[in-house]
Amino acid sequence: MPSTGGAIILDLSGMKNIIHIDRKNRVAMFEPGVTFSELASAAGQKGLRLNMPLLPRQSKSVVGSLLEREPVMMPKYHWDISDPLALH
Known about the structure:
By secondary structure, the chain is an alpha+beta fold. Helices cover about 20% and strands about 10% of the residues. It is built from two helices and two strands. A two-stranded antiparallel ribbon has the order 1-2. Strand 1 and strand 2 form a beta hairpin. The longest helix is centred in the middle third of the chain and has 10 residues. The N and C termini lie far apart (about 40 Å).
């Protein structure tokens, strides 16, 4: 339960559509309920791999991980839209 007044919790785990994976630009568009295992499988079919955090739980949402800013396994290739200093 939310501990802050007026807060709500939404369960987006049912939103599991992977909309598009672009091999050329190495980007993916997907809904918030997609887990790392689902996205890794779809990316693998396109010949890509994910820059993942260390051992995410099976039900962990990729979007949830990004919002929580979990560190990833290959920080050299990590790009964060909220960090303009990382742009080359």
